[in-house]
Amino acid sequence: MGNPSLTLNGRSIEFEPGQTILEVARANGVTIPTLCHLKGCHPTGACRVCLVEVAGARSLVASCSTPADNGMNIQTNSERVLKTRKLTVELLMASGKHNCITCERSGDCTLQDLAYAHGVDEIRFPVTPQPHATEDANPFIIRDFTRCILCGRCVQACQDVQVNRAISFGYRGPKAKIIAGPDVRYDQSDCVFCGQCVQECPVGALVEKKGKFLGRVKDVQKVRTTCPYCGVGCQLNLHVKDGKIVKVTGVEDGAPNKGRLCVKGRFGYDFIYSDERLKTPLIKENGEFREASWDEALDLVANKFKEIIAKHGPDAVAGVSCARSINEDSYQMQKLFRAVFKTNNIDHCART
Ligand code: SF4
Ligand code: SF4
Ligand code: SF4
């Protein structure tokens, strides 16, 4: 027996049992917009932007959370779908302060894209006043509740992707809000400032504090690189403007981190601009450092090792491999100590 099939926008399509309508559509090149859907997480159907029309169903269904079924006849862009989606977008735009002009996410905001795509050039509904003040007391993340659409992606990113469980939904009705702990500031909660919530926020409700007013998506160039901090080798995108980093994001689908980062990888890049950064080896003579070439410094270290081993034996030396080194470098270091120096005095610094 073959796979089940359905009709999508008039096209007959086979699908894998267990796929949702959204997954079938995406697998077949049909775009259904989403706001709350977070890849790899359980669909919540919260934003209602992915509604589609299924023949015979009384109401529109959320494609992210509705399993595809054999024989379904689905329309993703019918007049009814587009009208409802436009209304949803209008209501979201009216749910806070969405003026876009100085928003950090302008040009990279799913709500803004949806408003444009559906021709929302005026908001017909009264804008709901937002009762929660913006939080920017911590060094890394600004939480602007006036731009939060309560999609819940940040909560899933924190709870399910990073498994930090620092934030959740709090309050009800017009006071509804994403809260940290019992509704305290991020820096007073269990938040570890991994910044995953910021990366997954589809609008400008969570932004990187250090990058504010330094450049938006149209101004920056993305440069993919490997995190310099530890041996895991997480893949980063540096967002660079005029040679300076504006912000850092994890490379989605890039192994090994699949878009996730820790606080150091995401926010700890200031050191590269430090005036105190060492750029050449230094050799200390008569209590003072002087700059040296790599050849000179390496010869000095090698000769010192030789001298100590000749005088006191191989167990008089020890090595600690840097936690920032990649596995291959740590392997080479233990080879140097065990096979060349003939000592087992070799360890690895586990802390970063
Ligand atoms: S969050 Fe999006 S829609 Fe709202 S102000 Fe920012 S760019 Fe505009
Ligand atoms: S920064 Fe990380 S730990 Fe803190 S709330 Fe966001 S996802 Fe959770
Ligand atoms: S902060 Fe962003 S991700 Fe979290 S609920 Fe609000 S809009 Fe969604």
Spans of at least 5 consecutive residues with low confidence:
none
- Architecture of the largest domain in CATH? 2-Layer Sandwich
Please give the count of helices: 8
Q: How many strands, which pairing sense, and closed or not: the largest β-sheet?
A: 5 strands, mixed
Query: What is the overall pLDDT average?
Result: 95
Radius of gyration in whole Å, from Cα? Answer: 27 Å
Distance between the termini: 55 Å
Number of strands: 16
**Number of structurally distinct domains:** 4
Strand content: 15-25%
Helix content: 10-25%
- Class from secondary-structure proportions: alpha+beta
The coarse overall form would be elongated
In N-to-C order, the SSE pattern is EEHEEEHHEHEEHEEEEHEEHEHE
Give the strand order, joined by hyphens, for the main sheet.
Answer: 2-1-5-3-4
CATH class label of the largest domain: Alpha Beta
Bound molecules: iron/sulfur cluster
